[in-house]
Amino acid sequence: MLVKLMLALLVGCPGPVDGEGAVGGVVGEPSPVDVEPPVDPAEPGSSDDAAQPAQVSDADLEALVRGNNAFAFDLYRAAASGEDDLVLSPASVSVAMAMTWAGARGRTAEQMAEALHFELPQERLHPAMARLRSDLLDEVAGVELAVANRLWGQQGAAFLDPFLAVTRDSYGAQTVEADFAGDPEGVRADINRWVDEQTRHRIPDLLQPGTIEPLTRLVLANAIAFEGQWKFKFPAERTQPAPFTRTDGSQVQAPLMQVKLPTALYQGEGFQVLALPYQGDEVEMVVVLPEQHDGLAALEARVDGDTLQTWLGEATTGDVVVWLPRFEIAAGLSLVDAMQSLGMKEAFGMGADLSGMNGRQDLYISAAVHRAFVDVDEEGTEAAAATAVVVGRKSARPRLPQVRADHPFLFLVRHRATGSILFAGRLMDPT
Asked: Which CATH homologous superfamily contains domain 3-228+329-393?
């Protein structure tokens, strides 16, 4: 099963205004750079160069991961309202927002850094992102993880060299040519084709009609692909229908998988934390399970990156009998509300300063959406996610321990070597 996580970031730079030519640099700014000729947008990875990881200290990498994980739980809590199932990819959102941050300035950049928990300055964070990407892509038998970034730029427009250099050198994102002004729907179809290919047809129509407008001038896209087979698979013959108790106490029948395996388990007061390794032991699913069927909300309020690290550090390894539902979740949310609730307000308003992209203070984020999908079965895990951020002109919008997950729980897909949280979600109702 191939997991594809897709994140598309749409940046709408203004077209010419009365008496002006195409967008370019300003006096005192570095020279702008024109975009490259177009490539086939449907060919996966065809526009992506390998990011070049600079010499980055372990301390900077740890600071980046610590901040990314803090943001992961902030975003999860901002999105986890009501009683619905949820899945999202904070890692992908962090990458897309980091590329956007490369073009932010002033108070806009400060608010973004605070909301995203970016502890490092720009000149150190972007290289750290390149090293993290390189570390994540180390080959491990039984697990596939791939990352791709791409930019589409308006033909004839120009963007500042420092901005394009960051996205190219730290994120491996080549900028290719598009005609937003003359054929916005055609470009939308091209981007959707690329997203569809990168997500293995899990997200075929990310950008809805009208999302790309003639005033759009730049699209940044990020894709993360993950395929994980369990190290200890759940025997299919042991999967049986069993009651799953929802938060309100009602029950539904769900296919409950069962296996005995040696793994790490932390027994907290009123909850359990279980690590389910994928092949190669580099990536794991972490299940955070409250003891009571209505205990997830209180547990969600407690957990963050530091507490999770503490719990996993204090876990003991031994044989555990595990029951886990076979489940599939598809979910979507507005990132505008979520990010504003985390303090990133200015980027969405008339005071936004994204002048690092084009040398002018006339851009703001008008929309941001995120969609994700996860499928967990006896063999392993498949997931996909897509995000779009639209930026436009300011005038524009005692026995063997047992873990029986038969009631709502939190789950995470985590890269062990770096501690990076790749996916986060909750299961409220497996039916």
From this structure: Antithrombin, subunit I, domain 2 (3.30.497.10)
